[in-house]
Amino acid sequence: MPHYKIAIVGAGPAGYFAAQALQNSVTEDLTFSIDMIERLPTPWGLVRSGVAPDHPKIKTVSKVFEKIANQPGFRLFGNVELGKDISLEDLTNKYDAVVMATGSSIGKKLGIPGEDLPNSISASEFVPWYNGHPDFKDFKIDLLGKVAVVIGAGNVAMDCGRMLAIDPKELDETDSADHALNALHKSNIRKVFITGRRGAEFAAFTAPELRDLPKLEHTDVYINADAIALAYKNAEAKGEVEKHLASNLEAMKAVIEVPKQGHERSLEFLFSHTPKEILGQDKVEAIVYSTPDGDVTIPCDLVITAIGYVPEVIPGIHFESGKIANIDGRVIGSNIYTVGWAKRGPSGVIGTNKSDAADVVQLLISDLKEPKQAGDISELLKSNHEIVDQPYWVRINEAEVAAGEVRGKPRVKAVSVADLLRLGQP
Ligand SMILES: Cc1cc2nc3c(=O)[nH]c(=O)nc-3n(C[C@H](O)[C@H](O)[C@H](O)COP(=O)(O)OP(=O)(O)OC[C@H]3O[C@@H](n4cnc5c(N)ncnc54)[C@H](O)[C@@H]3O)c2cc1C
């Protein structure tokens, strides 16, 4: 009975869904050992370090991941980085197939003057900072000023804007990192703009996120009614308004219709604002936009760019147009496959990765030949390497959840690798 060894690199949604698709393909004549390799001591990818803390329901998908991890033949190798602790060649030699599920984690740059001024930062720094990603535990952000600008018209921009604009009390019962929660409690930011380059009809927000905005208890949300009327007009001029766009525009209209309470905190959406230059002497002081009505300068103290991600370079992997070079998930001329944001680029919600991974796994299975007899990753790592296997991770997870229970939170995250490893010691 053929038995194949598959390495999956990256323990985010795409990696788990690839593992699940392999598990679902097991028959009497086809079985798999799955080794999942993750550079952090914690799995779940952006479900832990991306999804906003005030959206805890989204994170319940982690229960599905844990079920996958508990199936026979699955092993977690956390705290193991491809390109540092092991090489791609090691994996391709030892495994019948290698599935790259490494995501896309570096913030895209605007390429405008002033972008490198202090307090002009990227969502790819701000988000993992408030979510307790170990790489960003010492990240510094100055929240002393009153006005913040978020550049981008997608859900990541919305998360960043909301995190700055809501009353931090609303985050007390979430799993936001303690360092971020402390900083947000001291924050002077009271006015937040989210700005999109094009009209509202092109915004990439999704309707459920927009529909949440009127529920904010301590923040008034503003969208210009003329901008929405224009978006309807422009969309209708092209024919029937597509369903997704219609529900987005409806959700924006609902925001406009909510009576404003005169809160000290506000979140305002501006469309057709193309960033031109960030101004400031020693740090951000203002941003200049070009708009259909001419240049507009908004004085501000913090700029966060949320305009997409590019993948981190991994030795031995060829990247093309912001993703691993692939055809339908196959890396041509190798036993390497790719899924998730590494394969498609940074678009799609958690669920998108499921059907996508299932399609790639079908191709992978159809390509399998004679199984290799070449050992596995445990022979590749140094004998003193601290591997976070599934039981080790379960101990970390339980310790974080227990610390959270005392404080009425889902968990209290440990934010350094050393602390995480300590938490999981038997
Ligand atoms: C800020 C933000 C908020 C989001 N909010 C939502 C939401 O509310 N709802 C929703 O449905 N979707 C949301 N998404 C989208 C969702 O997170 C993605 O669709 C999904 O995480 C992509 O999965 P992935 O497995 O491809 O990548 P990731 O989740 O990024 O996982 C990649 C994993 O690979 C690991 N890795 C990288 N390099 C290496 C290496 N060299 N060696 C070993 N491991 C490595 C990383 O540490 C990471 O754990 C959000 C995305 C972002 C950025």
From TrEMBL:
The keyword RNA-binding does not apply. Coiled coil: none annotated. The keyword NADP applies. Keywords: FAD, Flavoprotein, NADP, Oxidoreductase. GO terms for molecular function: oxidoreductase activity. InterPro entries: FAD/NAD-bd_sf, FAD/NAD-binding_dom, Ferredox_Rdtase, Ferredox_Rdtase_adrenod. Residues 4-165 form the FAD/NAD(P)-binding domain. SUPFAM superfamilies: Nucleotide-binding domain. It holds the Pfam family Pyr_redox_2. Its cofactor is FAD. Belongs to the ferredoxin--NADP reductase type 1 family. This is Unannotated protein.
